[in-house]
């Protein structure tokens, strides 16, 4: 009897844990699917990892929706040194920073543009766009490139997808366990 009593209590606790897990999972699932619809970086100029023959006259980031101009931060570094006087200008979904004052170089340079913007829904988006200048490189077209994935701007979406995948797996296992329990009863 004692053994049976313990078993019954154990089963009740396990069932309650399972229900709690399911509810938590469903809650996270709702959050994750919401996250997938958030504003993301859809274009950048210069392109991520591009090599230009000369310093660009500006750096432009294009987001999937307008961003809030009062919260935009952009820091341009050339070979690790911040370029002074580069203030970002927001026009709807495009954030632009003028870099025309950066002097021409005769040697290759590594550029880093760290950005942090706040989407219209209040969520922050941050990342770093990297590219290089090399006087020996062929002249670039200067067009807005969609190759911005490496800059980290879309990492939120990728993370949400990974979280959703993990949650679906947990849900599947939980459902399988419950079904086996119901069938066994
Ligand atoms: Cu959002």
From TrEMBL:
Pfam family, one: CopC
Subcellular location: Cell envelope
Keywords (A to Z) from UniProt: Copper, Membrane, Metal-binding, Signal, Transmembrane, Transmembrane helix
Gene3D superfamilies cross-referenced by the UniProt entry: 2.60.40.1220
Location of the CopC domain: 38-132
Organism: Sporichthya brevicatena
Keyword ATP-binding: no
Transmembrane segments: 160-178
Superkingdom in the source lineage: Bacteria
InterPro entries cross-referenced by the UniProt entry: CopC/D, CopC_dom, Cu-Rt/internalin_Ig-like, Ig_E-set
Name of the protein in question: CopC domain-containing protein
Signal peptide: 1-32
């Amino acid at each position: 009897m004692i053994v049976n009593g313990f078993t019954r209590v154990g089963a009740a606790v396990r069932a309650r844990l399972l229900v709690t897990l399911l509810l938590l999972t469903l809650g996270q699932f709702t959050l994750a699917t919401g996250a997938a619809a958030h504003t993301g970086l859809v274009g950048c100029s210069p392109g991520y990892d591009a090599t230009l023959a000369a310093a660009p006259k500006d750096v432009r980031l294009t987001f999937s929706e307008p961003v809030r101009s009062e919260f935009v931060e952009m820091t341009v570094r050339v070979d690790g040194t911040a370029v002074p006087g580069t203030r970002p200008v927001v026009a709807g979904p495009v954030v632009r920073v003028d870099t025309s004052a950066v002097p021409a170089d005769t040697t290759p340079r590594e550029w880093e543009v760290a950005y942090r913007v706040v989407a219209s829904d209040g969520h922050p988006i941050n990342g770093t766009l990297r590219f290089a200048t090399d006087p020996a490189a062929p002249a670039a077209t200067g067009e807005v490139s969609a190759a911005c994935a490496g800059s980290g701007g879309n990492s939120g979406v990728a993370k949400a997808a990974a979280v959703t995948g993990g949650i679906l797996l947990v849900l599947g296992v939980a459902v399988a366990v419950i079904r086996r329990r119901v069938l066994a009863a």
